[in-house]
Design goal:
Layout (H helix, E strand, L loop, with lengths): L4 H4 L5 H13 L11 H24 L10 H9 L12 E8 L7 E3 L4 E3 L10 E4 L3 E3 L5 E8 L15 E2 L6 E4 L5 E3 L7 H11 L9 H9 L6 E5 L8 E7 L7 H12 L7 E5 L2 E14 L5 H13 L22 H8 L7 E6 L10 E15 L3
Parallel strand pairs: 11-12, 13-15
Antiparallel strand pairs: 1-6, 1-8, 1-9, 2-5, 3-4, 3-7, 4-6, 10-11, 13-14
Helix pairs in contact: 2-3, 4-5, 6-7
Protein name: Baseplate J/gp47 family protein
InterPro entries: Barrel_Baseplate_J-like, Baseplate_J_M, Phage_Baseplate_Assmbl_Protein
Pfam family, one: Baseplate_J_M
Length: 383
């Protein structure tokens, strides 16, 4: 929706309003329009107020009165009219392994409130987690899974395998780690405006009397933590079956998230439908890129770091890279898109993509995921 609200309401600038005021006053006995004159100063005060009112109307009030252009709290108010609420940020909850060192014997108490954390991340942060239930590591056991909760909300706490490796609260003879599937409830960021806007319009598809694919998509997106949804309603497992394929901020959804989506859909679906909620079929790819820099421009290490960040942002949402469209279910990987984003890095004037050599095309239920990312820099003399 690209509407010029300023022209629509005939808004005038301060200068235009002052010109009109002078023309009107010229019809009267007021002739003193000199700078510093009483009548000019009074007119300027009034016209400035009117110009500010025009600006408030066309920059704030009108754009935020329509779902396609509203932002922030204004969009929240519009979405609430159809019972759609913005997903709030949530904390990661998962099972962290507390491992006994061989030299230590006896039962070991792991108290609620004990803290574990990651090493320093690329953003200069240490992500901390708190034990939320007291457990005892029995003498006969070498390790135990302990439920921990992230210190703050956010998807960045859904870290990978082995990332949680530091025990902040000293427990004699214990070290910590986390498995690949350690997350029980994924942490999420607060839903952005575009996602909420999309769900607002999807909600209208639920008004149909049948079970349209868009209705299933709306139901699945109603569950916090669901990032993308694809629906196969062409009887994939026989007559009356529907497959709902979902992703989370980490790509592959947890069993808990899939169950939450299925439970919600079960309250909405027609009785004749057999619904299965599942993860996409992952297609991992390696990305190898050479970025060209002039001999005397740009920093090599910073360029490589930015190249990795840009490439990762195509697969995982990044707060600093909101302009990059992430991979979605059923979307192929196109080198032209990667080239576009990498060419936006300061001083980079050429991009050579060695892998994948060609665009990667996928089926409707596939999701391309990154495997290894290898970014190098080549210095080129432009003269």
């Amino acid at each position: 929706m690209n509407v010029d609200f300023k022209s629509l309401i005939g808004a005038k600038s301060f200068e235009e309003l002052m010109t009109q005021a002078r023309e009107k006053m010229s019809e009267s006995s007021i002739t003193n329009w000199n700078t510093g004159g009483v009548f000019k100063n009074l007119a300027a005060l009034c016209m400035q107020g009117l110009a500010d009112l025009y600006k408030l109307i066309y920059e704030t009030i009108l754009p935020n009165s329509y779902a396609k252009t509203a932002k922030g709290k204004w969009l929240d108010f519009i979405a609430e009219d159809v019972d759609v609420q913005r997903h709030l940020a949530t904390k990661t909850i998962g099972n962290v392994k507390f491992i006994r060192n061989e030299a230590v014997t006896g039962a070991i108490k792991i108290e609620s409130g004990s803290i574990v954390k990651t090493p320093m991340t690329a953003k200069g942060e240490e992500l901390r987690y708190f034990v939320i239930e007291e457990v005892i590591l029995e003498e006969s056991c070498n390790e135990i899974a302990v439920k921990c909760q992230a210190e703050f909300e956010g998807a960045e706490y859904n870290v990978g395998q082995g990332t949680i490796s530091i025990l902040v609260t000293h427990i004699n003879g214990i070290s910590v780690s986390n498995d690949a599937d350690w997350v029980v409830n994924e942490g999420t960021n607060e839903e952005d405006d575009e996602s909420l806007r999309e769900r607002y319009f999807l909600r209208w598809n639920e008004l149909s009397t049948g079970s349209t694919a868009l209705a299933y998509k709306s139901w699945a997106r109603s569950v916090t933590g669901v990032l993308d949804v694809a629906v196969n309603d062409m009887h994939p497992r026989g007559q009356g079956t529907v497959d709902v394929i979902i992703t989370s901020s980490d790509g592959v959804p947890t069993e808990a998230l899939k169950k939450a989506v299925l439970d919600y859909i079960e309250t909405k679906r027609p009785q004749c439908s057999d619904v299965l909620v599942k993860e996409p079929n992952l297609i991992p790819i390696n990305i190898t890129v050479e970025l060209w820099l002039p001999i005397d421009e740009g920093d090599t290490e910073e360029t490589i770091a930015e190249g990795v960040k840009v490439t990762q942002a195509m697969f995982v949402p990044d707060e600093d890279k909101k302009d990059i469209s992430i991979q979605k279910i059923g979307r192929g990987f196109y080198n032209a898109r990667l080239n576009k984003y990498l060419m936006g890095i300061d001083s980079v004037f050429n991009v050579v993509i060695a892998s994948p050599v060609d665009d990667v095309l996928v089926e409707s239920g596939d999701l391309i995921s990154r495997n290894e990312i290898n970014i190098t820099v080549k210095r080129v003399n432009l003269t």
